[in-house]
Amino acid sequence: MSPVGLYCLLFISVLVCYWVPAGCYANGKVTKVCGSMEPHHSVPGQTAHSPYSLETNSIKFSPGDQIKVTLFGTSYFEGFLLQARDAANKSLVSTVGTFTLTNLNKTQLLTCNKHQGSAVSHTSDARQTEVVVIWNAPTYAPRQVQFFVTVVKHYNLFWVKLPGPVISQDGVTPHPPQWDTTPPPVQPTTTASILPGLFTSEGCGQSKSCLLDPPGCDPKDPHCFFLSMTTEGPDKTSMIFELSGPAEGYIAFALSWDKWMGNDDVYMCVKDGDRVLVSAAFVSGRTHPEDQSEVRSENSF
């Protein structure tokens, strides 16, 4: 295989990853998004109907009461962020009250707005269908409190700040909160890329450089890993890559300054249901690639 400029094609990596395509498993430490409750992912949240719901065991409360709050759904979820807020003041992002956990293995308390234990999140990407926590009503509470939750089914599919039940202090007549009249954000339209045809090994070694595993396999074979590179343009400064192969999570290739794996740019084809998403990543040594389409930290979902 001939090098392109100072780069050379280094490897094809086939890995299985369900939560974060690049293998960066979420730990639920999402205090930096307490206000927006929005995951730092590279795709917008869903606006379609959510399969998840919140419920409480009471619609009334007094200071010091403990209210059971349950998050459940008709489908599993891998991450969540749960808060209670003042139902009458939508402009406030501060949390109300604290929570007590009932499952220390799958849930954890967070400190939002310097208010310890004022939110709950997941501890790993383990799939769940129900979470039960206890909300502790503070001494000084607004007349009405509403619960909100962000739920992540998997990395590219999540619902932001779903509204839950409204509970009222004793003596306050319950009534539905005044919902924001702002319409939901319009999903950006995208144009699907149309492939010129099935990948082929025709021209390998002549008009394009190729890698095939097993050697000599046909790219049309579902068990064949195939990578090709072709230069194009008047000055041959543009490159076209073709990448295919069997994988439950993603397949990827890297561009390297040398022949060793580590500190290299990686390009991933990530399986997302019936779609394939393409994203840039970076790999440090023999580790999972870290998605660079949006910089993540331990404070992202």
TrEMBL record:
Gene3D superfamilies on file: Reeler domain
UniProt family annotation: Belongs to the FRRS1 family.
Record's subcellular location: Membrane
Coiled coil: none
Cofactor requirement: heme b
Residue ranges of every copy of the Reelin domain listed in the record: 15-184
Residue intervals passing through the bilayer: none
The DOMON domain, residue ranges: 223-301
Bilayer topology: Multi-pass membrane protein
The protein, known as: Reelin domain-containing protein
Listed GO CC annotations: membrane
UniProt keyword list: Iron, Signal
Range of residues in the leader sequence: 1-24
InterPro entries referenced in this protein's UniProt entry, alphabetically: DOMON_domain, Ferric-chelate_Red/DefProt, Reeler_dom, Reeler_sf
